[in-house]
What does this fold into?
Amino acid sequence: MLFHITQVHTPEQCPRDLPGGIKNLSDEKAEGCKVVATYGAYSQHVIYYIVEANAIEAVYKFLDPGWLRCTATITPVSGMVPTSAHFFGRKNRAR
It folds into this structure.
């Protein structure tokens, strides 16, 4: 299962000057959780992750290093479908 994670920290809690930077906010080696992508909106102090995990507990372990510095929103997501017509089970029709 894929999860979209939005992790937010305050400027005061920013890990920028720590060795490892944002890597201090997550555990990329957490058992059962694989990082698919990481993006940052650094001026907003927000990090976005797409992770793959079979259980929410693995996601919690991934986020464990940041719990005292950040808040996180975890949303289950799925892969994109080619078109909305495919998603809703109908073919494109001329109107």
Strands lie at 2-9, 33-41, 46-53, 70-77. The first strand starts at residue 2 and ends at 9.
